Amino acid sequence: MTQIAAPLVKELRERTGLGMMDCKRALTEVGGNIELAIEHLRKNSGLKAADKAGRLAAEGLLGLKVDDEGQTGVLVEVNVETDFASRNSAFVDFVDRVTQKAWEQKTDQVQALLDGDLEKARQALVQEIGENIDIRRITCMSAAHDGRIGAYLHSNKRIGALVHLSVNDARLGKDIAMHVAATNPQAVKVADLPEELIAKEREIYAADAGRSGKPQAIIEKMIDGRIRKFLNEVTLVEQPFVRDADKKVGHLLKAAGGEVLAFKRFEVSEGIEREEKSFAEEVAKQAGLTEGS
Fold first, then answer.
1. What pTM value is reported for the model?
2. What is the CATH number of the domain that holds 32?
C-alpha cells in the first residue's frame, strides 16, 4: 500500500475543504497523485450529496438583492440542516452566489437556476460541510420602470421582504418592506383577502359569541366588531405602521400619492414540518441502546 505523507494530505484538505480521512483515502486510491485525488473526489461528490438529499434542511439564510434604481429585486431562501452550518462562511458565500445568479437571470425558477455550475457547487458544498443543502424558493419582483421595488432583510438574514410601490420613493419602499417583514400581513387590502377566509373567521366568531347567551342583535354586533378587528390586523394598509403606531400604513401611502402593488415576505423554514425527536432517544440510538442496534 502506498504510504501517504501528512503534508500531502494537508495540501489536499486545504484545496478541497474536505476532512482529513476523506483526503487520505482519495490519495491512497490513486497512489498519491494529488490531481487524480481531486478528480476522484469530484466524481464522488455527487454520490455523497445524493446520500444526504433526503435529510430535512430546515435552517438556513435568506439572500436579497435590488439594483440601485430599485427596478428589480430578488429574495431567495437557501436551507441547510443545522443553524451551526448556516453560519459556515462557505454556506454564506453560496447563498450570495445563488442570490446574484437569480438577480442576473431575473428568475424565480429554482431548477433553471441549478442547471449548470450552481448545482455542481451545491453538491461540492454538501460534501464539504456534510449536510443537505436546498435552494427552497426564489421570488423575483420587477417594477418595469413603473414605481420602485422596496426591500428589507433583517440582520439575522432569516426574515426579509420585497414590496412593489407605484411611486419611486426609496425611503418609503424600505419602510414598507420593513413593516411587511415585521408584521406578516396576509394581503394589501381587504378586497384582496379570499372570501373563504373571512367566512371561516366569521363562523369561528359566531360559535364563540353564541355561547355568551346575549340577544341575537348583540351577538351580530360582536361578530362584526371582531371581523373588523381581524381585517385591520391582517391587511397591510389597515395596520398601524411599526415606526409610528398613530399612523396606518395606508395613510403613509396616501401622503406619498402611491400604493402597494404587490409584496412578498420570506421567513426561513416557515411552513416546514419538523419531526419532533426525543433527545434521550437520540442519545440512546447513538450509543447503540435501542432495539435492533
1. 0.74
2. 1.10.8.10
